């Protein structure tokens, strides 16, 4: 009888502990993961990659036109297409699963700061293999940033690198090689999703660490923490270097006025995914938000999903005060960059501690920040 009483007492205590007010779930988990994964695949991920592929195809055409006829007008068109493609990339960067992970899609597309010395060495030698790990920082959008915006101070001087420079042919060939890699990888990822991977992704609807829901939820948190908070703000603002500033390490360094645009595009994509907003923008479906609501995740008496969305509002408000040129912002008033970092960090806490606990999802990536 005593054993039965102890077991009953343990169950009662465990139940009370699992009904805490710190972001844990207070209800059972009966959420339909198959429906969630289907919505993610069909209404968010595949349309996002399709849009990205379309933008990269247009960018490829612009690069081909520029290398065939290097004029200021064609440079401006190529540069504009680069911006559109770069923004579209922010909408797919967190979906690093399947073929994207296999072919190092993220690493070859947006490793920054770009290796200017290495790029110039590649161009001068004419011998390089862009599939090597050592070449990740010599390609992708950051490399295009240098080659379209950073070779000189004026458009006329930049065009001269592709016309009258002794290595003009090599510069043009490098642009063509870079866009070929980008186009090939974009098409490969989209083809995979439109092929067998969609079914594989949806079928992995369990609760194991390797399941699609758990993997993508981890990628959602990792992307927000590592690629957005740390990469776009923390590292250049000196958060991880005892206050030593690195204004040259911002995203879009050579373009000068695109850093904030890319930051906000990435954050908006994260929030839209969190809320299950379809890429078309007309509907919402099953999401991390609805999953949290389904398990009654709360913090301090308020729905955790509402707290997270309210923090997104705070993040946008803080970002609004930032200069479009993050290098200039860091140099002139880095305190505002730290404020932006802190605003992002608060949602990192809500995601990593509260959300992951409520959904019973284990962090599967190395965390060295002490969060």
Q: In the CATH hierarchy, what is the superfamily?
A: M75 peptidase, HXXE motif
CATH topology: A middle domain of Talin 1
Structural class label: mainly alpha
In whole angstroms, the N-to-C terminal distance is: 45 Å
Query: What's the arrangement of strands in the largest beta sheet?
Result: 1-2
Pattern of helices and strands:
HHHHHHHHHHHHEEHH
Q: Count the strands?
A: 2
Rg from Cα = 23 Å
Total number of helical segments? 14
How would you sum up this structure, described in words?
The protein has 371 residues and is mostly helical. The protein has one domain (25-358): A middle domain of Talin 1. The protein has helices at residues 2-17, 33-68, 72-90, 99-102, 105-109, 116-125, 140-150, 155-161, 168-203, 212-234, 259-275, 288-294, 304-319, 326-358, and strands at 298-299, 302-303. The protein has a two-stranded antiparallel ribbon with strand order 1-2. Strand 1 (298-299) and strand 2 form a beta hairpin. The longest helix has 36 residues, at 33-68.
Descriptive keywords:
single chain, disordered N terminus, two-stranded antiparallel sheet, A middle domain of Talin 1, mainly alpha, 371 residues, 2 strands
SSE blueprint:
Blueprint: H1 2-17, H2 33-68, H3 72-90, H4 99-102, H5 105-109, H6 116-125, H7 140-150, H8 155-161, H9 168-203, H10 212-234, H11 259-275, H12 288-294, E1 298-299, E2 302-303, H13 304-319, H14 326-358
Antiparallel strand pairs: 1-2
């Amino acid at each position: 009888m005593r054993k039965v009483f102890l077991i009953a007492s343990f169950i009662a205590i465990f139940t009370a502990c699992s009904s805490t007010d710190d972001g844990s779930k207070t209800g059972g988990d009966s959420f339909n993961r198959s429906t969630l994964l289907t919505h993610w695949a069909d209404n968010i991920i595949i349309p996002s990659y399709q849009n990205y592929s379309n933008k990269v195809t247009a960018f490829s055409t612009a690069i081909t036109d520029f290398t065939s006829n290097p004029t200021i007008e064609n440079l401006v068109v190529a540069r504009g297409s680069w911006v559109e493609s770069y923004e579209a990339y922010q909408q797919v960067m967190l979906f690093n699963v399947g073929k994207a992970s296999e072919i190092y899609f993220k690493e070859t597309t947006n490793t920054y700061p770009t290796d200017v010395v290495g790029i110039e060495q590649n161009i001068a030698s004419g011998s390089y293999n862009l599939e090597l790990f050592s070449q990740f920082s010599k390609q992708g959008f950051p490399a295009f940033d240098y080659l379209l915006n950073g070779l000189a101070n004026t458009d006329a001087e930049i065009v001269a690198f592709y016309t009258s420079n002794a290595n003009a042919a090599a510069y043009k060939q490098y642009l063509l090689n870079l866009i070929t890699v980008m186009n090939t990888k974009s098409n490969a990822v989209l083809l995979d999703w439109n092929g067998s991977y969609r079914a594989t992704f949806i079928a992995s609807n369990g609760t194991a660490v390797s399941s699609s829901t758990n993997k993508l939820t981890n990628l959602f948190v990792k992307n927000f923490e590592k690629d957005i908070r740390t990469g776009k703000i923390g590292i250049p603002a000196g958060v991880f270097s005892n206050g030593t500033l690195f204004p040259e390490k911002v995203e879009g360094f050579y373009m000068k006025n695109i850093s904030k645009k890319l930051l906000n595009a990435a954050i908006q994509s994260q929030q839209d995914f969190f809320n299950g907003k379809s890429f078309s923008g007309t509907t919402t479906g099953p999401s991390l938000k609805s999953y949290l609501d389904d398990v009654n995740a709360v913090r301090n008496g308020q729905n955790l999903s509402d707290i997270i969305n309210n923090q997104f509002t705070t993040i946008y408000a803080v970002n609004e005060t930032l200069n479009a040129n993050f290098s200039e912002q860091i140099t002139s008033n880095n305190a505002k960059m730290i404020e932006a970092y802190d605003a992002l960090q608060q949602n990192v806490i809500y995601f990593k501690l509260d959300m992951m606990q409520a959904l019973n999802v284990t962090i599967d990536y190395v965390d060295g920040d002490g969060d």
